[in-house]
Amino acid sequence: MKVVILCGGKGTRLAEETIVKPKPMVEVGGVPVLIHIMNMYAKYGYNDFVLALGHKADYIKDYFSSFFIKNSDYQIDLATGEIHYLKKFNVNWKVSLIDTGAESMTGGRLTFLKDHLSQDENFMLTYGDGVCDVNIKDLYEAHIKSGKLATVTAVRPTARFGEMSISNSQVTSFAEKPQTHVGWINGGFFVMNKKVLNYIEDAQTVLEKEPLERLTEEGQLNAFQHTGFWQCMDTLRDKNYLDSLIETNKAPWI
């Protein structure tokens, strides 16, 4: 089954990094966040990736075109150009890099991928800027069991600030940056039937607006509720937080 990763956004809120590279290539623990996401899927046996490129697409293409040689040890004979690999870095991933336009919206990017998604009935979909410890296998099984056209992973994000409960001017509970207790949000890890593509009008369609709203109205959007770790990387604060989790060996998605 294909895993589509939306890699085309401009990441304006992370301009400190995205001025020179696309957001999915911003490094977390010295590795592009995109590779972290791909490893999450590969851990469950999903290793056929379709990257929907846009802003700074060439940067991602260049990265993968030299991925093998950058991650292997080799000896090169400069007289002949012959390369002898001393230690090969092997991953059994297949990666399709598709330019879906610099100005396309999240749903619109999928219109460029129809030919690449026609083989299977369902496909995975996520954004190129968030990590999670969701069980991808359980997510897929929940989607199949639901019989719906789409399944979204619903998460409760960590509160940015501490949370207190107060009764009669007395603090009854105090938690430093807890997971919020009310409200679920789109966690960005989807399973979709290819029929969802029929809900997308053109390149300017925003997936989170009309397509998902229509699916909801028709009773075709299933929720997979995930109460574990989830974190997007929207700002430099988020990136630094993810870096700190790796540095302290507390990164739940790895």
Topology overview:
Elements: E1 2-7, H1 15-18, E2 27-28, E3 31-32, H2 33-42, E4 48-53, H3 57-65, H4 67-70, E5 73-77, E6 82-87, E7 94-99, H5 108-111, E8 122-127, E9 130-132, H6 136-146, E10 150-155, E11 163-167, E12 170-175, E13 185-193, H7 210-217, E14 221-226, E15 230-232, H8 236-247
Description of the structure:
- With 254 residues, the chain is an alpha/beta fold.
- Helices cover 24% and strands 30% of the residues.
- The strands form five sheets. A seven-stranded mixed β-sheet has the order 7-4-1-8-13-10-14. It has a two-stranded antiparallel sheet with strand order 2-3. A two-stranded antiparallel sheet has the order 5-6.
Helix content: 10-25%
Let me know the largest β-sheet.
7 strands, mixed
Please provide the count of β strands. Answer: 15
Residue fraction in strands: 25-35%
Q: pLDDT below 50 for ≥5 consecutive residues: which ranges?
A: none
Q: Helix- and strand-based class? A: alpha/beta
Described by the principal axes of the CA atoms, the overall outline is globular
What is the C-alpha radius of gyration, as a whole number of Å? 20 Å
Number of domains: 1
The number of helical segments is 8
Q: CATH first level: which class?
A: Alpha Beta
CATH architecture verdict:
Alpha-Beta Complex
Terminal-residue CA separation = 22 Å
Helix-strand topology string: EHEEHEHHEEEHEEHEEEEHEEH
Give the overall pLDDT as a whole number. 91
- The name CATH uses for the topology is Spore Coat Polysaccharide Biosynthesis Protein SpsA, Chain A
The CATH superfamily title: Spore Coat Polysaccharide Biosynthesis Protein SpsA, Chain A
Spatial ordering of strands, largest sheet: 7-4-1-8-13-10-14
